[in-house]
């Protein structure tokens, strides 16, 4: 009979302290979740650069994409120039530059040395190459096509846009004179 009384008194005291017990358990859950989140963030190091040394002795920089980042913002972070996002896309074989995933690891190329095509053809397909320092836009031209004809590399369209201070690189008119830096 003593054990029954003890059990009843314990249950009765628990019933009286139910709100306090719930509050303690809730606080414990919050603390455990907080510790797990802090440990996860410490280990993942999202958005921070890491460097490796390649076999050729060149430093290779890696970047893990964080929430809200784009190739433009990553390019501004490493090169102080958003237009260099084209080089990031090219180096990482990104076909849709508008879509990169959080946690995706990108190789950040060292743009200290310009990579030039080993042989530039004088004609590309049916198009003639552009050799001058300026070019007059004709109907149907795009910056990509002009960059391919002038530099042999379509990704250089961003340099043409920057050099000519184009507000909207998607909008060029026939008759415009573009400066092509050489």
TrEMBL record:
Taxonomic superkingdom: Bacteria
Keywords (A to Z) from UniProt: Membrane, Transmembrane, Transmembrane helix
Organismal lineage: Bacteria, Candidatus Woeseibacteriota
All copies of domain LysM, residue ranges: 61-108, 133-180
Database matches in Gene3D superfamilies: LysM domain
PANTHER family assigned: PHAGE-LIKE ELEMENT PBSX PROTEIN XKDP, POTASSIUM BINDING PROTEIN KBP
SUPFAM superfamilies: LysM domain
Pfam families listed in its UniProt record: LysM
Transmembrane segments: 21-41
Designated name of the protein: LysM domain-containing protein
């Amino acid at each position: 009979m003593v054990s029954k009384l003890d059990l009843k008194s314990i249950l009765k005291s628990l019933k009286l302290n139910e709100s306090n017990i719930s509050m303690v358990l809730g606080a414990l859950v919050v603390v455990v979740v907080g510790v797990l989140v802090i440990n996860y963030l410490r280990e993942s190091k999202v958005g921070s650069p890491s460097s490796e040394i390649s076999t050729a002795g060149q430093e290779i920089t890696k970047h893990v994409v964080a929430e809200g980042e784009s190739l433009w913002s990553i390019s501004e972070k490493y090169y102080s120039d958003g237009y260099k996002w084209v080089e990031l896309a090219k180096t990482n074989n990104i076909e849709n530059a508008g879509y990169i995933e959080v946690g995706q690891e990108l190789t950040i190329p060292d743009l200290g040395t310009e990579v030039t095509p080993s042989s530039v053809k004088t004609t590309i397909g049916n198009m003639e190459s552009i050799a001058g320092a300026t070019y007059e836009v004709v109907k149907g031209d795009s910056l990509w096509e002009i960059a391919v004809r002038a530099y042999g590399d379509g990704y250089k369209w961003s340099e043409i846009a920057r050099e000519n201070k184009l507000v909207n690189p998607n909008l060029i008119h026939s008759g415009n004179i573009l400066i092509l830096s050489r």
